[in-house]
Design brief:
Layout: H1 11-42, H2 46-72, H3 75-98, H4 104-132, H5 138-188, H6 199-203, H7 206-210, H8 212-219, H9 221-241, H10 244-249, H11 254-278, H12 285-303, H13 309-337, H14 343-355, H15 358-376, H16 387-392, H17 398-419, H18 422-425, H19 427-430
Helix pairs in contact: 1-5, 2-4, 2-14, 2-15, 3-4, 3-5, 4-14, 5-11, 5-13, 8-14, 9-14, 9-15, 9-17, 11-13, 12-13, 12-17, 15-17
C-alpha cells in the first residue's frame, strides 16, 4: 500500500459521482439529438461511424501520456481541467448553432476535442476510486459508475425527444453546458488523496515512466491476456452497435429509436443496480466474467435477428444488462491487483489496448454496411433468396442485422479462446492483492 490512509466510507466518491452523473445526463441529451440530426442530414451509416471513431482515437493515441500524468499529478485538478475543457467545447457547439454555422465536420472536430479532455479525465477518475472507496465496496462503486452510463441511456433519449420539440437543439445543448457546473462544483468541494510516489517514480520521467503500465501488464501475463480479451470483445460489440441508429432508422421512426435506447438503458441500469446491491462475485471472478460475456454476446445476436423493435429492444436489454457486470467485475480485479501508484498508467494502457483495434471497426463498419451488406440483403440482392434471408428478412437495415449476427459469432469465438488461457483463469490466485482489507 503506497498511501498511509485507507478510505473508510464512500461519501466522497458518492459526492463526485452525483456531479458526474448530472453532467453525463446533459451530454446524453446532446448526443441523442445530434445523432438524429446527423442521420436526417445524411441518411448514411458512415457519418455515425466516423463520429464514434473520433470519440475513441484520443484514448488510444494518448494512453501512456495521460496515464503517467494521472499517477504523477493532482488528479482532482486534472478532472477539473478536463470538465472545464468539455464545457467550453459544448459552448462552442452552442455558438455554432446560434449562428447557423453547424456542419457535419464541425461535429467531428467537437467530438475529437472533447474526447481529448475525456482521455485525461478517465484514468484520473479511475485511479482515484481506490483512494476513495474501501476494498470491500469497490465493486459497488464500479456498479455506481456503470449506473451513470445506464441512466444516461435510460433517461436521455426519452427526455431529449420531448425537449427537442419544446426547446429545440439549441436549448438541449444549453442544458448540457449548464450541467457541467454540477460536475465542477462537486469536484471543487471534494478532497481526492494521492498515493505516495515511489522513489523510482520520483527519479524517472518521460517515456520510461509513461510506459510503466505496459511493463506491469507484460510482467503479469494473466492481466495482459484479460486486456486483450476485452479488446476483441470491444471490437465485435462496437463494430455492430455503431450501426444501431442506421439499422433502426432504416425502417422505424426516431421515436422508436428513442424507445429502444431507453429500454437498452433500462437493461444497463438494472445490471448496474444489481452489481451495486450485490457487490459482485467475491470468488471465481474470471468464470463470472466469461459467463456474463457469453450472455452479452447472445443479446447482440438477438438484436440483429429481425427488423422488429421488440427483438432489437430485447437483444439490447440483454446485452446491456450484463455489460456492467462484466466491466465492474473486471475493474475490481485490476483495482486490487495493481499497485496504487501505477493505477493511472495501467488503466490508460488498458484503455489504449482495448480500444486499439476499434478504429478499424469504426472506419470499416459504415462502408461495409452501406456498400456491401445492405445491397446483399436488399430486395433482389445476392443473398435475398438465401437461408439467412429467410431467417433475418430482407430490405433496409437487414444487411446491418447480418453484421450483428457475424459479430455475435466472433464474440463467442473470442470468449472460447480466452477460456483456454491458463494465466487468465488463474489471475485471482497467481497475482496477490495489493490492497489490504479495512483494519488489516
Amino acid at each position: 500500500m503506497t498511501s498511509a490512509v485507507l478510505p473508510k466510507n464512500m461519501r466522497t466518491f458518492s459526492t463526485i459521482w452525483i456531479g458526474q452523473l448530472i453532467s453525463l445526463l446533459g451530454s446524453g441529451l446532446t448526443g441523442f439529438a445530434l445523432g438524429v440530426w446527423i442521420y436526417q442530414q445524411t441518411g448514411k451509416a458512415t457519418p455515425f461511424a466516423i463520429t464514434v471513431l473520433f470519440a475513441n482515437l484520443p484514448p488510444v493515441l494518448l494512453g501512456p501520456i495521460v496515464g503517467s500524468i494521472a499517477d504523477r499529478y493532482d488528479r482532482k485538478k486534472i478532472m477539473l481541467i478536463a470538465d472545464t475543457g468539455n464545457a467550453l467545447v459544448t459552448l462552442l457547439a452552442l455558438v455554432l448553432l446560434f449562428t447557423n454555422s453547424l456542419q457535419i465536420w464541425n461535429i467531428f472536430l467537437i467530438v475529437l476535442v472533447g474526447s481529448v479532455f475525456g482521455a485525461f479525465q478517465e484514468p484520473a477518475f479511475a485511479a482515484s476510486v481506490v483512494m476513495l472507496v474501501p476494498k470491500k465496496d469497490l465493486q459497488r462503486a464500479n456498479g455506481m459508475a456503470q449506473m451513470s452510463n445506464a441512466l444516461g441511456n435510460l433517461i436521455s433519449p426519452l427526455l431529449s425527444g420531448v425537449l427537442f420539440g419544446l426547446i429545440g437543439l439549441k436549448g438541449i445543448i444549453l442544458i448540457d453546458f449548464i450541467t457541467y457546473f454540477a460536475a465542477l462544483f462537486t469536484l471543487i468541494i471534494s478532497k481526492i488523496p494521492m498515493p505516495v510516489l515511489t522513489e523510482e517514480q520520483k527519479n524517472s520521467g518521460g517515456w520510461k515512466d509513461a510506459m510503466a503500465g505496459w511493463r506491469y501488464l507484460r510482467a503479469h501475463g494473466g492481466l495482459l491476456g484479460l486486456v486483450i480479451f476485452f479488446a476483441g470483445i470491444n471490437f465485435m460489440l462496437n463494430f455492430a452497435t455503431v450501426l444501431t441508429s442506421p439499422m433502426v432508422l432504416a425502417t422505424l421512426s426516431p421515436e422508436v429509436l428513442g424507445t429502444i435506447m431507453t429500454v437498452s438503458g433500462l437493461g444497463m441500469f438494472l445490471g448496474s443496480v444489481l452489481l451495486s446491491a450485490w457487490g459482485g462475485p467475491k470468488k471465481n471472478k474470471i468464470i463470472s466474467i466469461i459467463g456474463f460475456a457469453v450472455l452479452t454476446t447472445i443479446g447482440l445476436g438477438i438484436a440483429g435477428l429481425r427488423a422488429n423493435p421488440y427483438f432489437i429492444g430485447a437483444g439490447f436489454f440483454l446485452l446491456l444488462f450484463f455489460v456492467p457486470l462484466v466491466s465492474g467485475t473486471s475493474q475490481s480485479i485490476f483495482q486490487t491487483k495493481v499497485p496504487l501508484d501505477l493505477q493511472g498508467r495501467v488503466y490508460a494502457m488498458r484503455s489504449m489496448i482495448s480500444r486499439s483495434i476499434m478504429p478499424i471497426a469504426f472506419l470499416t463498419a459504415g462502408p461495409l454496411a452501406d456498400y456491401i451488406f445492405e445491397p446483399l440483403m436488399a430486395e433482389g440482392g445476392a443473398l435475398s433468396n438465401s437461408l439467412i434471408a429467410r431467417i433475418i428478412g430482407v430490405g433496409p437495415g437487414r444487411g446491418i442485422g447480418l453484421l450483428f449476427l457475424i459479430c455475435a459469432f466472433g464474440g463467442l469465438v473470442t470468449i472460447a479462446s480466452v477460456w483456454g488461457n491458463k494465466k487468465v483463469r488463474r489471475i485471482e490466485t497467481d497475482i496477490p492483492d495489493v490492497i489490504p482489507e479495512a483494519g488489516d
